[in-house]
Amino acid sequence: MKGAWAIAKKELRSYFLAPLAYVVITAFLLLNGFFFYAILAVLSQPGASSTSPMSLLFGGTVFFWIFLIVTVPVITMRLGAEELKSGTVETLLTAPVTDLEVVLGKFLGALFLYVAAWLPTGLYVWAVSLYSEVDPGPVLGGYLGTVLVGLLFLSVGIFTTFVSKNQVVAAILAFALLLLLLLLSLISYIITDPFWKEVFSYMDLYAAMQGFSRGMVDSRPVLYCLSGAAFFLALAYQALQARRWR
After folding, report:
1. Which residues contact 120 (CB under 8 A, 6 or more apart)?
2. Does the N terminus or the C terminus of the chain have fewer Cβ atoms within 10 A?
3. Confidence category of residue 243, pLDDT binned at 50, 70, 90
4. Residues 6, 95 contacting (CB under 8 angstroms)
5. Segment 100-155, tens digit of pLDDT
6. pLDDT of residue 96 exceeding 80
7. Of the candidates 228, 239, 110, 107, which has an alpha carbon nearest to the alpha carbon of residue 163?
């Protein structure tokens, strides 16, 4: 898989040679930092809930999900759409790399940027540890869940960027699909049939992140995120294969 690593490094360089990476990371940290400050301010009020700020930071509020469904399409929108529009995808397809390596390379490049955006939030953990004891279990679980959800969401973005030549359209498609995934997470709270309730509970990303942020790792959401990521990457691979035979 040397080709995939080479493409991942190329994409990572392109992110940081252009303003996109800095804009995404800066905006993400500013908004997330303000939100975390608001969490601490609310929890420090007399009579406030004893909820851990980490559990709210990692999926405990709607803002976490808004950050993801907006940030991920911005990260992935140019990865395939730009090359489809400029025609450089034809050069890529004739290079000594397989279509699978192209898809995985671009996916890894996006994943590295996604993780880079989250790494500085470790300062929030450090800030909280100055004033109270921090249980490492929920922190590590929260980051694990964030990466797993990121794998799923980024794979959706990779798929949409290979089906549209327009970056904005690719971003809108990714946003719509991610919103649909979040809506699927709500179905288990609405339906009453025990069988379907159990089926849709496997797709409940909200409950999954609540578990992760408490330090509880359930194999079901892990499998759901990994299999979902594999599914959308397979769709991206098929979309790229279709381009090759046109």
Report:
1. 25, 29
2. C
3. low
4. no
5. 888 899 999 999 999 988 888 888 888 777 777 777 888 888 899 999 999 999 99
6. no
7. 239
Q: What angle do CA 207, 125, 205 make, to 5 degrees?
A: 15
For residue 40, pLDDT beyond 80? no
What tokens does 56 get? 């709210």
Statement: residue 59 has pLDDT above 70 = yes
pTM over 0.90: no
CA distance linking residue 51 with residue 104, whole number of Å: 38
114's tokens: 């996604």
What is d(CA 171, CA 69) in angstroms, rounded to the nearest whole number?
A: 10
Amino acid letter for position 188: S
Dihedral angle sign, alpha carbons of residues 145, 147, 151, 156: positive
Strand, helix or coil for residue 204: coil
Residue 73 neighbours by CB under 8 Å, 6+ apart = 157, 160, 170, 171, 172, 174, 175, 178
3-state secondary structure of 225: helix
Is the Cβ–Cβ distance between 223 and 152 less than 8 Å? Answer: no
Query: Could you give the angle at which helices 62-86 and 136-161 cross, rounded to 10 degrees?
Result: 30
DSSP 3-state assignment of 75?
helix
Q: What is the largest CA-CA distance in the chain?
A: 65
Token pair for 186: 């709500």
> Which whole-number Å values give the CA distances from 217 to 55, 111, 137, 143, 221, in the listed order?
14, 21, 10, 11, 8
Look at residue 178 in the predicted model and tell me its pLDDT: 95
| Stronger pLDDT, 70 or 53, i.e. the higher one | 70
For residue 103, CA distances in Å to 26, 96, 162 come to 27, 14, 9
Name residue, tokens 């769709």: 235
